[in-house]
Every structure is written in C-alpha cells, then in structure tokens.
Amino acid sequence: MEDSRIGLPIGTALDRFIKRFQDDFPYATGELSQLLRDIALAGKVVNREVNKAGLINLSGSIGSENIQGEDQQKLDVLANIRFIRAFTKGGEACAIISEEDEKVVDLHNNGKYIIAIDPLDGSSNIDVNVSIGTIFSIYRRLSPVGSPVSEEDVLQPGINQVASGYLLYGSSTILVYTTGKGVNAFTYEPTLGEYFLSHHDLRIPDDGKIYSVNEASAHSFNEPVNQYLEYCKKNRHTARYIGSLVADFHRNLLKGGIYLYPSTDQNPQGKLRLMYECNALAFVVEQAGGKASTGTERILEIKPKSLHQRCPLYIGSKKMVDRATSYY
Ligand code: AHG
Ligand code: MN
Ligand code: MN
After folding, report:
1. Does 24 reside within a domain?
2. Nearest CA to ligand 1 atom 12
3. What is the CATH number of the domain that holds 297?
C-alpha cells in the first residue's frame, strides 16, 4: 500500500523513515533521530528478554522496592539498565528520569535532551504472559549545553515534549511514537531484527465503546467518575482492562475508547505517574486526535512539582474524554 502524501509505503524500515523525516524534527540536528534509534535498539534487547522471561529466571520479584514502594520485578530492573545504557552511549541525553530511580540519572552535561521513562510498564503482567511495554518522553533542556542540569530542565510540562511514545511487547512488538507531527507505528519483525512502518499517521476514532478502568476501586471513585461509568453501562459500552496501561492505551488508540485511572482511597492523586506515563501518552493521543485530562485539567499543561508525581488520568477518544470530564 503506497501512501501518496509521503511517498513511503507501509513496510518502510524505521531507519529509512527516521532519515526521511529528520528535517521535520524540531531543531533537526540528527540527535533526536539518534535517540529514537537508541530507544528502538534497547527495545529489541528488552523484547528478547521479555520473550525469554519464563525460561531464564527473569520472572518474579527481585526482593526490593522502588521509590514508589512497589515491588521491583527482575525485568523492571533489567529494562531500566538496558535503556539507561542505550542513552549513556550516544551523548545526546544529559539526564534521565526513570520510574526505577529515585533521583535524576545525570549523564553528559553536553547532552541536549532529557528523557523520562517507564522502562517496564505492566510489571504485574510479566509472570503471566500478558502484554507489557515501555513508555518514554523526550524533552530539550532549557539551560545552556555544558552546564549542570537544572531542576527547571527536569520538571518541564508535557507540552514541552519534543517526542514521546511507547513500545508494546504484545502479540507482536510495536514501537509507536510522535515528534509532534502525527503518530506512526512500527511493527518489529523478529526474524529480520527490524521495525517496519505498519500504521502511518494513526488517528484515534473520535468516539468509541470501550472503557478501561479498574472498577474494583469504584467504591472510592468520586461521584463524577461513577456517574460516567453508569452512563457507559446504560449505553452498552464494553469493559476491557488489561492492567498494563500501555496495552490498554494501544487498544483504545486503534479501536476507540477511554482509559481511566481516577483518584482512589489508596491513591488519592491517582496511581499513574505524570512524568513517564501520563505525559508521554497524552502527547501521542493528542497527536492522534484524542484527548488526555485529569478530569479537570489538560494533562500536558500540568507543571510538575516532583519527579514521581502522580495524577488522575482520563485518556482516549475525544468525545469519550469530553463526556467523562463533563460530569465534573
Ligand atoms: P508499572 O508496572 O510501571 O508500575 O505500572 C503499572 C500501572 C499501569 O500499567 C496499569 O494500568 C496500572 O498500574 C494498573 O493498576 P491497578 O492494578 O491498580 O489497576
Ligand atoms: Mn507503568
Ligand atoms: Mn514500570
């Protein structure tokens, strides 16, 4: 299938695609391209490890907790190492914010970019062969290159992202990303070791019927959330919840739907992390024509106060997010 607008067929290799669109990137120096290549490569390595998880003692807990007090799985730690190593080599990145590291990981002061990453999303699904993923955001630093990274560099609102996306290790492995000019997805072909363009200029359906939420917490959702869930049921929507944000999000992106993680009694600010879960997917969904909100505020406009800050999330098809937030 030839795409007439860009002259690149579905099946174009990721590298060729990146090269072809390099000049469209903000600042276009080739460094952002290199970061995307690094992510793609680390994704291949993690994909290989995910695929072997049951065989080589990669399943299970490592016996430690991360900064959020969550049990760290071996693959969480391994994926974190793989991605940090990939960003360390090239020199394009000056700092990394990771779910698995309490503090900012400082790299080269000469790097221009800051990465926020959830190296392994959906940890509870590793041991049971259910889809998991990696979520990433890329920012350009605000302080001069060569100086130490400042707090202002690190705590930028999502609106400043120059690229974001995710890898989904599912029935096939797919890399989905945006650089602010629409969303493209590349499916990994393991026998060739290459990603190929499989979805060009992805658009999320304006409306949908799928709602994804952990309804076991409904007793502690606030009234507007429960009113919206009532609406979904009365209007014959379909409930789908995998428990890996990246997998639930991807399905809704393709089919139309909404994902909700509201505040609960256990997680009064919501469970999901602004800097390496919500912002990245909010940028992708907006670039695909959808919306992302806390219920009362556009996700991308939140000015972060801390690295591991949480926020409620309503994300997906435009009309569904509008309806869900209209109950506030
Ligand atoms: P992580 O594995 O990176 O800690 O993220 C888990 C998140 C997200 O992926 C998922 O949607 C959500 O936690 C599920 O939470 P519940 O089990 O509370 O529904
Ligand atoms: Mn996560
Ligand atoms: Mn994680």
Report:
1. yes
2. 243
3. 3.40.190.80
State how many domains the chain has.
2
Instruction: Find the 122 Cα to ligand 2 centroid distance in Å.
Output: 6
Range of the domain at 40: 2-199
Phi/psi class of residue 64: alpha, beta or left (left: φ > 0; alpha: ψ in -120 to 50)?
beta
Stated as kind and residue range, the H or E segment containing 61 is: strand 61-65
Residue ending a domain, among 138, 164, 199, is 199
| Nearest CA residue ID for atom 15, ligand 1 | 243
Tell whether 204 is covered by a domain.
no
Q: Could you report the per-residue pLDDT of 25-84, keeping only the tens digit for each?
A: 766 678 999 999 999 999 999 999 998 877 766 666 666 777 666 766 788 999 999 999
Location of structure tokens 């505020």:
297
pLDDT of 196 above 80: yes
Q: Any idea of the CA torsion for 278, 281, 285, 287, to the nearest 10 degrees?
A: 110
The answer to whether 161 and 305 are in contact (CB under 8 A) is no
In ligand 1, which atom is closest to the CA atom of 272?
7
